[in-house]
Every structure is written in structure tokens, then in C-alpha cells.
Amino acid sequence: MIKTLILVKLIKPVLKALFTVGLGLALLFGITWVFMNSFVRNKSPWIVMFQSDGKGFQQISISCAKFPNIKASVVFHNIEIKREISEKIIFDSDVKKLPFGMIKAIDTTILPGKIVLEIDRHEIGISEKHLIIDKNEYNWSNISKIEMSQP
């Protein structure tokens, strides 16, 4: 009986300390999660408008609502698409299919993220800092429309 009483008196402070540490860690995790979630979701994703007239003219228009100064169009010639296309793709998660071209890489962990597309054998890299087309870097403030020729 005395041994049990002594054991309870010894275990009680240890359990109290463990509970306090656990509660503190849970609170720290909760605050961190709320902060990180709001940081990640506070930005907006890339919006790419795919357009084709069905006669050899194709264009993508790139924008991001959070960055109004980021707007660019890339025009492609000689892609054989037999139908008219006007489709907006919002890159807020994994996008599986594009109206034309393909996705080579996508990272939307922290929006707007980074995207690499391949359209008509041209590689187009989209990020907050710049637009990269066929390993040529373009600053967002210096471009509005880029005409592509056959590679």
C-alpha cells in the first residue's frame, strides 16, 4: 500500500509534465499549420488560356491574379489543330491534360508555383521571377507577346 502511494506520488508530476509538453506541442503545431496554410493559400495560381482558331494559329495567355503585372502571350504557328479551342486552365493542383501541348513538370506546393510546358517542341517555363522559353529567360516586365517559329 505504501509502495503504491509512493509510486503514485512519483508518477503524478511526470504525467503532468508530459501532458503540459504534449499540449504545448499540439498548440505549436496548430499555430504553425494555420500560418503555413494561410501563407500557401494566400497566393493565386497560374491561369493559362489556350486558344486556337483551327487554322494554324495557337496562343497561350499567361496570367496570375495575385501579380497583375504578370501577363504574357506566346503565339505558335503551324500546329495542326483542326478545331477551335478557347479553354482556361487553372494550375492550382495537378492538371492532367491540356488542350494542346503537354506538362513536363509542375510544382504547386506554394502558389503560384512553377510549371514547365512543352508546346510544338518549345519548352516554356513559368515562374514568379521569369518566363523561360527554349532556355531563353524573359523578365515579366519586358514582355507582352512572343511569336514562336518552328524549332
Key words describing this protein structure:
10 strands; 1 helix; 151 residues; five-stranded antiparallel β-sheet; five-stranded mixed β-sheet; alpha+beta; 26% helix
Overall 3D form: rod-shaped
**By helix and strand content, what is the structural category?**
alpha+beta
Strand order of the largest sheet: 4-1-2-3-10
Number of structural domains: 2
Average pLDDT, rounded to a whole number, is 84
Quote the beta fraction. Answer: 35-45%
Radius of gyration, in Å, reads 26 Å
The oligomeric state of the chains shown is single chain
Question: Mind explaining what this structure looks like?
Answer:
The chain is α+β, with helices and mostly antiparallel strands and 151 residues long. The chain folds into two domains: 42 residues; 102 residues, no CATH class. The chain is built from one helix and ten strands; from the N terminus they run H-E-E-E-E-E-E-E-E-E-E. The strands form two sheets. It has a five-stranded mixed sheet with strand order 4-1-2-3-10, with no helix packed on it. Strand 7 and strand 8 form a beta hairpin. It is rod-shaped and about 95 Å long. The N and C termini lie far apart (88 Å). The model has no long low-confidence stretch (mean pLDDT 84).
